[in-house]
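Work Package 3 (structural annotation) set out to generate three-dimensional models for the target panel prioritized at the project kickoff. During this period the team completed the workflow that converts sequence records into discrete structure tokens, so that structures can be stored uniformly alongside our sequence database. As a representative example, we reproduce one entry of 327 residues exactly as it appears in the project archive.
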Amino acid sequence: MRTLGTTSSLAVSDLGLGCMGMSEFYGERDEQQGVETIQRALDLGVTFLDTADMYGPFINERLVGRAIAGRRDEVQLATKFGNEREEDGTRLGINGSPEYVHRACDASLQRLGVDHIDLYYQHRVDKTVPIEDTVGAMAELVEAGKVRHLGLSEASAQTIRRAQAVHPITALQTEYSLFTRHIEDEILPTLRELGIGLVPYSPLGRGLLTGAITTTPDAEAGDSRGTAYFPRFSGDNLAHNLELVAKIRQLADAKGCTPGQLALAWVLAQGSDVAPIPGTKRVKYLEENAAAVDVDLSADDLRALDEAVPRDAVAGERYGDLSSIDA
């Protein structure tokens, strides 16, 4: 277990499970397969589950709720609000209004079939609503017993400070991996100064760091990684990035693990306040990821990884459109 946050602390499994891909964005979905993957995760001690209302939309929360029925007390359950969508998938924009915070939470509780959420994140910062107002409404959820701990996602250092002044923030969820290290400049030092944990999403670079991806994913088959929204997966960018993955594979072979396990071990080695949530919809990959906690990295190993994949070596922005990211 690892502890996120110091003022409002939440103990979570070393490695969590991102459930998004079970319902959307990464090709066809199979709900029963997703349920089986989540239940196998719990059996393995991977009990920190991450979802959001917009995944599906709404489908993923229902799937997670079905999977954890009867096992709620084993789970550290996290979900998110703020990327507002309609049932048909229409995107309405980012919403951080206090009224919406309450409405979204009640809807998530119903879909998940639980009486409280362990960690409730603002999925994206609404730049039209003062963060103090949004977090103030989130704090009311804590007071009502609907939520135990508060989180932010993709928030800037300044926003994090303002939010923390309203109510203790337990964790920041943001992208962080060998391929995405921008938070090391200002955001990560701010988290540690304030005693806030870090929950890296896409710690495997959306699958790139596993070595399993060798061509641009099929956008027509529903895999969003094959669209312009993810520039790292196409053309010259992909070719360059696969050369980096080949270097990681060499190091992984020497350690007797897979490239993905080595990449996850790197994230885990960044601090005991870091709990990554690699996503998968298959038991096979879940089991591979879970074994990463047994990969011990020495100072020499970490140095070799830094040399193989220098911080800014990856080609392409992490998103084709960064306008929704708080900066």
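The longest strand covers residues 147-153.
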